[in-house]
Amino acid sequence: MSKLSPIEYVDAPPKVRAVFDDIKRVRGVPDVNNFWKYLAHDPATLQRTWESVKEVMEDGALSPLMKEMIYVAVSVTNGCGYCIASHSASARKAGMTEAMFGELMAVVGMANETNRLANGYRVPIDAAFDQ
Amino acid sequence: MSKLSPIEYVDAPPKVRAVFDDIKRVRGVPDVNNFWKYLAHDPATLQRTWESVKEVMEDGALSPLMKEMIYVAVSVTNGCGYCIASHSASARKAGMTEAMFGELMAVVGMANETNRLANGYRVPIDAAFDQ
Amino acid sequence: MSKLSPIEYVDAPPKVRAVFDDIKRVRGVPDVNNFWKYLAHDPATLQRTWESVKEVMEDGALSPLMKEMIYVAVSVTNGCGYCIASHSASARKAGMTEAMFGELMAVVGMANETNRLANGYRVPIDAAFDQ
Amino acid sequence: MSKLSPIEYVDAPPKVRAVFDDIKRVRGVPDVNNFWKYLAHDPATLQRTWESVKEVMEDGALSPLMKEMIYVAVSVTNGCGYCIASHSASARKAGMTEAMFGELMAVVGMANETNRLANGYRVPIDAAFDQ
Amino acid sequence: MSKLSPIEYVDAPPKVRAVFDDIKRVRGVPDVNNFWKYLAHDPATLQRTWESVKEVMEDGALSPLMKEMIYVAVSVTNGCGYCIASHSASARKAGMTEAMFGELMAVVGMANETNRLANGYRVPIDAAFDQ
Amino acid sequence: MSKLSPIEYVDAPPKVRAVFDDIKRVRGVPDVNNFWKYLAHDPATLQRTWESVKEVMEDGALSPLMKEMIYVAVSVTNGCGYCIASHSASARKAGMTEAMFGELMAVVGMANETNRLANGYRVPIDAAFDQ
Fold it and tell me: Contact B38/A121, CB-based, under 8 Å?
């Protein structure tokens, strides 16, 4: 066996069902997405990850929309196909328009380019940025 | 010679001075930061990069503040020390509070974690995300 | 032609067959996996890579199981789909249980998160770590 | 202000002191390292991160030593200077010998090399790894 | 809607058609590849990216072939499946032989390995490289 | 002890001296650079890495100059400070001019940008690239 299968609610132990129920309640969705059904193979990580995501992604100094777009920026930079698909969907659900998506991609692309220019030219940090 | 030196305004050729002048004008700063002084070794890349950054970072569907925070998110994910220092400063200048910075880091950290969980568990993309 | 095809044993030149034979002998498998069938397009790299992998992955101060789990940790961090699939299988063959896989993923996820928190907060290395 | 300063115990608010005290208690150290003193700027992230690290790194199906070496493998792959320094120290404290460190680096290097060979040769996943 | 569709020439607005026409003219191809048909969702980014790529990839101190191979090296290191496929095709079209591809992959693999060995052993930069 | 020290020739065991001697002979240098002095802590990895680097970097279908520039492209993409410094020096020694360095950085930057645009727009591989 080298590939895992998703764990559906009906087959899940109580501890996993409790997390699935909370995810469905908080997000107002009828079922959880695959990410959680696979993490369910490790109930401790499933619960810890969900509790952390719930705390980190809630409305605060940054809006849920801003947070989802930041999530997309990181996922695109890392090239995580699953995360790009799921968080792009979440960002759109949170209000990201096509114009916002376009600008998000433009900034992510530009940042990845200038990160390498700064690396390659071995640019020392300006004193002003170290104060 | 294996390490470049920054090119200061007084030593810069006209084409480079023109870009430096535009950066200072647009940003309202007395001098450009090291990134531009090193890129000046390649005037074509200096000009193209500045024109692109100027177009990408201007106010639009996303605010300059949001764009600077996305820039920080990418730079932190890539581990570009210069870019983290310079764009954290730009984000603060654009209005990022400590509370916003804290939440930005929390989301960036969480996204980098769940990106790997999705990779490692080989989670297939939900049909709903492919429509 | 932009995509290569795997080179099967029957179609392989003597130098490639010799490497395939050694891989099958050392691993006790009836055939080599795709990675080697593609590397076979460059016999020199096929041989050098196999000799290196054989030397690096053999039992030593670290067990083959520990080494396969480290391989998975790196592959998950880099998001290499092929490597995650092949080395997860090798790790399981070497004795990795589901509980071990779960903890491996938990550590890899946490490390990727705190790596970015350390980057973003620009944490200086403690003197104690530089002695 | 573009660079943060570490928050020392004497200057820390109660919530932060409580986390610092728990870190010192669990690790049996007289003071926490810089990572925690910087995270202290965001008490919620400090507490969540410490609780998660404590849960993830405790002895389980994998030993603390194995977990610290996996942490090093990820940090080296990401090039996080602070994390490489701190977790190499933790791994040595947990029993990593020079021979083990040498083999760890050899596996991490090899995995990073073959990850790219698999990417570049566009190797399809063997059916056996998808079952 | 969470997944975009390619924008074909017949459905494209004038500004997008103008870019598509220039790509087809410069590359002497009957149609543009998917990358451009997706970027077309953001005409400003489509135009800016094409103008930049056209300027950067033209014959200069480095030949188009060398530039395409460097593009492949970066794409393989980042694990961008689309970019590996498209730029490997472009490199072959520009004259990359199988022997050149094999050596390119060998260098990319080796560089990714030694990058991590240098990180892990925390190797300080030689004075000679800082002059 | 958490930080290693370089191993100088006078303090090196015979097996390490033999590798150092070969590096000095092949490169025509009076001493080896720090990378090798740190790898010397693991003679087996030192020897295997040097033998591989020597084989991979020798003149072939690609010139030593082209190979050093590819090495820089990978190191800049990964942000390996030591590797950027050492291989930029090697590339210059092999004949890389400032104009070539500028174009190399421009291509590396552009590739890192478009890699992320391709990821973010979830661009499917054109059929033509899969034949």
Answer: yes
